[in-house]
Amino acid sequence: MSIEQLARKTVRELTPYQSARRLGGSGDIWLNANESPFANEYNIQCARLNRYSTCQPVELIEAYADYAGVRADQVLTSRGADEGIELLIRTFCEPNKDSILYCPPTYGMYAISAETFDIERKVVPLTTDWQLDMPAITANLDGVKLVFACSPNNPTGNLLNREDLEALLDKTAGKALVVVDEAYIDFCPEATMANLLDQYPNLVILRTLSKAFALAGLRCGFTLANPDVIQLLLKVIAPYPVPVPVTDIAVQALSPAGRAKTKFQVLDLSANRAYLQAGLSMLNGVTVYEGYGNYLLVKFPDADSLFNALWEHGIILRRSPIENCIRISIGNRDECEKTLAFIRKQLEQN
Length: 350
Fold this sequence. Notes:
Radius of gyration: 21 Å
Order of helices and strands: HHHEHEHEHEHEHEEEHHHEEHEEEH
Number of strands: 13
Shape: globular
Number of helices: 13
Structural class: alpha/beta
């Protein structure tokens, strides 16, 4: 028996998530992973590196609870929001029995994490205006333990209707958890569902420091939920999920000074997004969809040829599963100007 045959059939047949780094590329402008262009400096203490970290560092939990406007017992921290997704599936879904439900086009890790654990995936596509198809979701809730909804949605960039999310929470009460992925909520904090945690015991929210806080390399995420959910997740999480340097840096980022810096940088990125949106909207045949995160989804007459031309020129963007669409992360002003200028030139030539 080969090593591959020793692996589970599900894993042998699994297509892994095609992250920006796996897809590679070579260039000077990287606008394909929704990363921040800001590289902030932090102090790292080495005195505690010989000791294991605390499973849930109190100072980090309290700092994020204060930032998110929730109680400390409603917060769990993990290795990015991706680990939060896996923890929820491992905790609440029985393999080969229960299901998750998700609504593409959206973040691909919901489906891949479920498939890895032999959990059925129920797929209910978003409507033509990229909102939840409530009648179709309602008709497919049997056996579903987790419903994943991303708002702002990746890759479309739009917010999901709050009324639909609340209706979904009502429909699934006592039957399933509704997991609202708020990875990009720091760019539109007024749209958060966090203020509904006490009202809905089945509401779970995923957060991260990767985007607005410019800490993608830190791999620090959070799950916000009612204490009963948090306590169950703590039974499943690894013993030492948060390295000591991660805690040190994250606490600095969540300090008053760190939060002020993030707020300023978010304003800067929002201005660049508006600049890029306005410039692209002026081009013939181009549709720019309204975005609330640090990226834009843009439809071009021939997205594949344009994407390849950008790639070869060292401007690395992200292909979209939506026909003729490219997702463009928002970089600094120089990156946005160069990207817009190259796209304009290419379209004029064609």
